[in-house]
Amino acid sequence: MPYLLSLLDKSPIEQGHTAADALQATVKLAIRAEELGYHRFWVAEHHNMSNLASSSPEALIAYLLARTSKIRIGSGGVMLQHYSAYKVAETFNLLASLAPGRVDLGVGKAPGGFPLATRALQLAADPASRPDFTDQLSDLNTYLAADPNYNGAQATPFPPTAPERFLLGASVESAELAAAKGWELVFAGHLNGDPDNLRKTFETYERASGGKRPILALAAFAAESEEYARARVGNLRVIKVFLPNGQTVNVGSEEQAAEFARQAGVTDYRTEEKVPSVLHGTAKQIRKELDEFHRRYGVKEFVLDTPALSASERLASIELLAKERLSLVA
């Protein structure tokens, strides 16, 4: 059953290591992913996080493009609420001019950080005039079209091949929006693994887009033995924070939950500890699960999020998965 495998990396900072170490581990992972035949390599955007080093995906993308030659490199994704659509289009048009046919622009709606970072990022913006997410996607479409006859500001340079566009989401609303704006949908199954929601979102996107299927993002960790994989992911936890205004956010610990609430200026909050959804086991076991998603939902491409484990374990995992799928990945 043919389908493509791609990767998402968040540049986790291991205990006792530095952010520079984490970024170099991401670079090594991207280089190896290209050698192994992965289709895309995406990097994330997280702000003011002590355990994650990738705060500026566009800067990291430029470096990764320079260190690789074939694999597509992109954002998974740019947190669009913080930025001018014009500036995002300029940046990715420039990247696509440096590496034609290899650049992906993935965008998301979340803030990608805690309230203090969000306020710092949006300090110069007038909340009353800031466009909503839907309007920003429309503006990006206009700027990325690179129409020389457009009378407005043009996001130069115009690349030989425009960046591919991806909307990251996990809802029916995201599916409808992506289809309406002509963007590829990446269903964030690593963040929301509810099977009923997945089915409804896939059906909505297929219907609204005229038959296209979303890409499916999943967290996955492969090891030589099922026991080792289970032991390594068994202690991973996600803390869901519920604020009085109805906002919810996932963080990595109770300490982070308390800090998020402090920055949001609230004391009346509650938390729930959740076990993250991570495919784990041997590469053969993970392949069977991917095959089943492909059979059931027609998934043509998976973006595999590597959990925040050691750099050597993340590297070994992608090597094992590629070996299991080598004939189809390549």
From TrEMBL:
Residues 16-296 form the Luciferase-like domain. Coiled coil: none annotated. Its EC number is 1.-.-.-. Pfam families: Bac_luciferase. One of its GO terms (molecular function) is oxidoreductase activity. Keywords: Oxidoreductase, Plasmid. It comes from the Bacteria. The keyword Phosphoprotein does not apply. It is an enzyme of class 1 (oxidoreductase). Signal peptide: none annotated. To bacterial alkanal monooxygenase alpha and beta chains. This is LLM class flavin-dependent oxidoreductase. It comes from Sinorhizobium chiapasense.
